[in-house]
Prior knowledge:
Elements lengths: L3 H46 L7 H26 L4
Helix pairs in contact: 1-2
Amino acid sequence: MMKSAPLRLILFLTVAFIGLALLQNALARQGHMDHALDLLRSARYELNEASRNKGGHRTEAVRLIDQAIEQVKEGIAVGEEHGAGP
């Protein structure tokens, strides 16, 4: 029985290490989505601060960024439901 205790400990530590590595990997990939969301919000802010005389292109860019923000949010939600993927 004494010999199986170290084996169990090694097995437990191995499984824990693999689990932590997988979790870290999943969180890192979701982190990219969060970062993209921050960048899109920053771009929207900058466009909103720009002068209005852009022939409608600034307004269209803001509209498209708003769509992109919604898509990224939906992607984050799906990633949380199914485990964060690339």
